[in-house]
């Protein structure tokens, strides 16, 4: 047994006790939310012991620590996951059953912590799970947003955003740690002082505003190893006036301003995925959590080490995209101004401690802060960046004498902007992409100049996902079946063992069992859809699923145009054979992304027409699942037959949903983009449906001004019909304007951009043919079952455990910790 405190009677007593002391109630009287709280506190009690033990082990072993710096951690619910990782899920479920409490219902009471947008934030969460499971010392560093990712409602087919007040009922798993608060300073000016006695120039920030950063710690439980790491997210508080400089004391305006600053800084997560908006508050958020995290890391290091020069032996700051990149300058500031090191010493430490992960090549996602804004908000940090840039450009000119074009292309400060990616590459010792293809594109296209100058920094770390959440928790039927079939549950920590399923690929009994589990999961999703959408879907139809953030490059528009095409086909040829299909969508659009919202409306309009057309006998259904998030994702992946991964080749850096589908036995229908390439390599071309332009072809077209979608429109009547239906009122009650912008985006954009930038019409025929092949394959039950099973069997590479081990081996060089209990 993992812990005697999970013993049935002990645990039951604990829950009863909690209900009594927290709410003055009995189990029978308690509300489901109160039961969730009481159960969670009982679980936390046990976690705390392991958490303490882990910290003590760290003190003994003094391991190297990775600080995973991220604006986003899309954690998903904690209760079920913690129970799984403490290997107590089934025991606790049984104990609660005896008390008449349904664990699943209790789990549904937990708000889904959504401190992230999508793949990037969820990757950070999977990484924390793997770090703890593999026994490495790690901190996640982020922001405790008051409001996470908005809740999505669909009203009249349109997305409506409502605030995600995830802390309303209190978060039972967090610990507030006021005593580790750090001050963070913004604005003002820098006074330069010369100190004769030490011969040093001092840089003193004056007239600044400051906030107090208060850490909240959440436990990150490793699987079955008593290892508990920490996610440290920062809240902001005004510095009360007695803490102000004597000069400022009693300054009422200043006190109120600082109150406001503190409140607004952590108020809300920016709901943009793969997009940079350039808002001042966002930069404040970045510096706020970075300054607090770096200060805390240095304080911690200095508690037990006296030589700051050896920081790189014990500390790594991994920067999750450019959002935390101000870290390099903040570390320099602390080393220069507070530790009083010289530039070269400080630079040496910084460039051995900081590493950067690139997650996108989308131009609109690149962070380029206007210099005036940046230098006003972070005057000292800006000075340091100027000096980093000055010294870097000397090197560029040495390497490429007379080549001012190179200087312009590579500079950190250029054209009135601070280019954060360049800063990260120059100051980091490692630059990694998140899938093989993506890393090659970085090296050969986007970051070519940097790769040429410093090839040793570049490396690939293909993303991964945690099987603890996305199989054990999300798909318990399949998890148990896998354990039975391969004769071990070691796959929970070694996903390569899934290959043990390959021997069942031609075993009809095993295949039938596998598909029976898929069927049950489809029934579960069908019930969810009935309850939430009021739509009846047939679990015997093909569940064809595209769930991810809504973005033009992800091409949900291609998917829904194809649905419109199928509908036309069925209507025109009622006798045509057609295997029933349910197209399932789930996607949030950034609140300000108008075209993405139009696509959501279109999907819902098509759903309305198609689902209510009795003449097609329910052959086609379209479902838009409201508020796609981690908790319903688990249900969706388990139930999917087809995994739609149809981004314009070269645009999706990796994708991680693709891996979750694969794990759950859904073949990929996709382009050769991101990690799809590696998925196909593992599972075999014959077990996926690949179509469309290659990334090289896309890049080629882009470099030559695009292509002519008009030609396709003119020559292909089926495509023309579908495109025309955007403006002839078919899906808009006769309104010819509702989808005019989508129509224009394909043929003649009004904003000066290229027509059909994402090659939707170009790839349409290839997509339709691939979809035809899906249908053919599905009709042959055995063949489909084999494909599906092989997807599960071949997914071993895509565990985040493998990804993390690669980061450790090539970048972080962490020490393993064994927690002794
Ligand atoms: C995503 C990428 O689009 C996706 O391909 C990848 O699998 C995932 O990161 C994890 O590596 C990104 N999300 C964001 C979010 C923001 C900015 C850039 C990216 S890239 C806010």
TrEMBL record:
Enzyme Commission number, as recorded: 2.4.1.1
Pfam name, any one: Phosphorylase
SUPFAM superfamilies the record matches: UDP-Glycosyltransferase/glycogen phosphorylase
Alphabetical keyword list: Carbohydrate metabolism, Glycosyltransferase, Pyridoxal phosphate, Transferase
First-tier enzyme category under EC: transferase
Names of required cofactors: pyridoxal 5'-phosphate
Entry annotated with the keyword Protease: no
GO molecular function: transferase activity
Entry's family note: Belongs to the glycogen phosphorylase family.
NCBIfam families: P_ylase
Name the record gives this protein: Alpha-1,4 glucan phosphorylase
């Amino acid at each position: 047994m993992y812990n005697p405190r999970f013993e049935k009677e002990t645990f039951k007593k604990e829950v009863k006790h909690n209900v009594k002391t927290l709410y003055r109630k009995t189990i029978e009287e308690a509300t489901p939310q109160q039961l969730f709280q009481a159960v969670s506190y009982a679980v936390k009690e046990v976690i705390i012991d392991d958490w303490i033990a882990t910290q003590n082990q760290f003190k003994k072993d003094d391991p190297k620590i990775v600080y995973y710096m991220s604006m986003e951690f899309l954690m998903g619910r904690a209760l079920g996951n913690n129970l799984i990782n403490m290997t107590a899920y089934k025991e606790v479920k049984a104990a609660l059953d005896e008390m008449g409490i349904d664990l699943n219902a209790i789990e549904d009471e937990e708000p889904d912590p959504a401190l992230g947008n999508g793949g990037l934030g969820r990757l950070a969460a999977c990484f924390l799970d793997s770090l703890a499971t593999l026994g490495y010392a790690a901190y996640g560093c982020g922001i405790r947003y008051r409001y996470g990712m908005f809740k999505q409602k669909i009203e009249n087919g349109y997305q409506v955003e409502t605030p995600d007040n995830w802390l309303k009922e209190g978060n039972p798993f967090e610990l507030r740690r006021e005593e580790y608060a750090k001050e963070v300073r913004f604005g003002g000016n820098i006074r330069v002082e010369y100190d004769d006695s030490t011969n040093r120039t001092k840089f003193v920030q004056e007239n600044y505003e400051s906030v107090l950063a208060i850490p909240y710690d959440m436990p990150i439980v490793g699987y079955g190893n008593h290892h508990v790491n920490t996610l440290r997210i920062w809240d902001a508080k005004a510095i009360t006036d007695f803490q102000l400089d004597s000069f400022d004391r009693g300054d009422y305006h200043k006190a109120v301003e600082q109150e406001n600053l503190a409140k607004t800084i952590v108020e809300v997560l920016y709901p943009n995925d793969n997009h940079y908006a350039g808002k001042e508050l966002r930069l404040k958020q970045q510096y706020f959590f970075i300054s607090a995290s770096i200060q805390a890391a240095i304080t911690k290091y200095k508690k037990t080490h006296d030589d700051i020069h050896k920081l790189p032996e014990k500390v790594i700051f991994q920067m999750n995209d450019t959002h935390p990149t101000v870290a390099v300058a903040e570390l320099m500031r602390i080393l220069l101004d507070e530790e009083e090191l010289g530039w070269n010493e400080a630079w040496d430490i910084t460039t051995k401690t900081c590493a950067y992960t690139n997650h996108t090549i989308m131009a609109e996602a690149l962070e380029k802060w206007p210099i005036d804004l940046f230098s006003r908000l972070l005057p000292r940090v800006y000075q340091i960046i100027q000096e980093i840039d000055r010294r870097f450009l000397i090197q560029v000119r040495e390497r490429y004498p007379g080549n001012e074009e190179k200087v312009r292309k590579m500079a950190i400060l250029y054209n009135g902007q601070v280019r954060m990616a360049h800063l990260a590459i120059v100051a980091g010792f490692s630059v990694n992409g998140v899938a093989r293809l993506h890393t090659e594109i970085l090296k050969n296209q986007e970051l070519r100049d940097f790769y040429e100058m410093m090839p040793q920094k570049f490396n690939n770390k293909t993303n991964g996902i945690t099987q603890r959440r996305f199989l054990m928790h999300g798909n318990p039927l399949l998890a148990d079946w896998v354990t039975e079939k391969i004769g071990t549950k070691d796959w929970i920590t070694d996903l390569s063992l899934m290959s043990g399923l390959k021997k069942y690929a031609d075993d009809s009994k095993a295949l039938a069992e596998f598909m029976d589990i898929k069927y049950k999961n489809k029934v579960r999703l069908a019930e969810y859809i009935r309850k939430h959408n009021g739509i009846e879907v047939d679990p015997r139809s093909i569940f064809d699923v595209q769930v991810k953030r809504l973005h033009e490059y992800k091409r949900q528009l291609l998917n829904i145009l194809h649905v419109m095409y199928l509908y036309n086909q069925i209507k025109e040829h009622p006798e045509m054979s057609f295997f029933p299909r349910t197209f399932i969508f789930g996607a949030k659009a950034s609140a300000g992304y108008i075209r993405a919202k139009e696509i959501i409306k279109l999907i819902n309009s098509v759903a309305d027409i198609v689902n209510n057309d009795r003449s097609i006998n329910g052959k086609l259904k379209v479902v838009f699942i409201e508020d796609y998030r981690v908790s319903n994702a688990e249900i969706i992946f388990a139930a999917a037959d087809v995994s739609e991964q149809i981004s314009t080749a070269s645009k999706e850096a990796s994708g991680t949903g693709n891996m979750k589908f694969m794990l759950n036995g859904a073949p990929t229908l996709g382009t050769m983009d991101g990690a799809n390439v590696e998925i196909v390599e593992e599972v075999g071309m014959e077990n996926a449906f690949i179509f469309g332009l290659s990334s090289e072809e896309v890049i080629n077209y882009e470099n030559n001004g695009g292509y002519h979608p008009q030609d396709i429109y003119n020559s292909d009547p089926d495509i023309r019909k579908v495109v025309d239906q955007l403006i002839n009122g078919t899906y808009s009650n006769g309104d010819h304007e509702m989808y005019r912008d989508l129509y224009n985006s394909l043929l003649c954009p009004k904003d000066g951009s290229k027509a059909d930038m994402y090659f939707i019409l170009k790839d349409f025929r290839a997509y339709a043919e691939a979809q035809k092949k899906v249908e053919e394959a599905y009709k042959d039950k055995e063949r489909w079952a084999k494909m599906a099973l092989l997807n599960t069997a071949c997914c071993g590479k895509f565990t985040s455990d493998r990804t993390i081990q690669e980061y450790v081996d090539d970048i972080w060089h962490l020490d393993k910790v064994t927690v002794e209990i």
